[in-house]
Design a protein that fits this description.
single chain, 194 residues, alpha+beta, Alpha-Beta Plaits, 8-stranded mixed sheet, 8 strands, 31% helix, 35% strand, globular
């Protein structure tokens, strides 16, 4: 009897070690670094408007530099080394300056990230729900487009709704549609495409 308990404990320790090793490998494989965000704003009428957004974006502690293009109302935002980039804070700064986001894209350096259509992927603690994509593995710099409400025009948002029936697209947070992917209900999800 004593021998079977030790064997059971040994099996448990081996299984626990194996699961830890798999989780560690997955953590290293699921890494990505946001290199740049490009935002197109609407409602700008002059250089003062552009300057207002520029100042608002630069006030975020993770932003290093902002390049504004007044002609097409876009802002390329670069980040401090190893900074955690918060897309919602960037969007809010544009809105706080009195404008709206018409398009939002992020250039990210991916390291062996497997994606599938209409599936969630957690990368560095951020959940992305890929829509209208082919199954593939992302390596190197790739530009993704956030297609959540408020990150694209209303027309574009409605068009993208045809790519999923999951409720998280409407709310931007994990709901009853998402637990199969191990997501905590109420956690933020960014819906993206390539």
């Amino acid at each position: 009897m004593h021998l079977s308990i030790n064997l059971s404990n040994s099996k448990f320790i081996i299984m626990k070690t194996l699961l830890l090793a798999i989780a560690t490998i997955f953590t290293f494989a699921a890494s990505a670094q946001v290199k740049k965000v490009s935002i197109q704003a609407t409602g700008l009428t002059c250089s003062m408007c552009s300057n207002s957004i520029n100042k608002a974006l630069k006030s975020l502690d993770f932003v290093d530099k902002v390049d504004a293009n007044i002609q097409n109302s876009t802002f390329d935002i670069y980040f401090k080394p190893n900074a955690t980039v918060d897309f919602d804070k960037l969007k809010k700064k544009v809105e706080d300056a009195g404008f709206f986001v018409a398009a939002f894209s992020a250039t990210i350096h991916f390291n062996n990230i497997a994606i599938s259509n209409n599936e969630h992927v957690i990368i560095n603690g951020t959940t992305y729900h890929f829509l209208n994509v082919k199954d593939q593995t992302l390596n190197g710099d790739e530009t993704i487009h956030i297609i959540d409400k408020g990150y694209v025009t209303t027309k574009e948002y409605k068009k993208n709704a045809s790519f999923t029936t999951l409720d998280c697209y409407k709310t931007g947070v994990a709901g009853s549609c998402c637990p199969k992917d191990g997501l905590v209900k109420g956690s933020r999800i960014y819906h993206v495409t390539i």
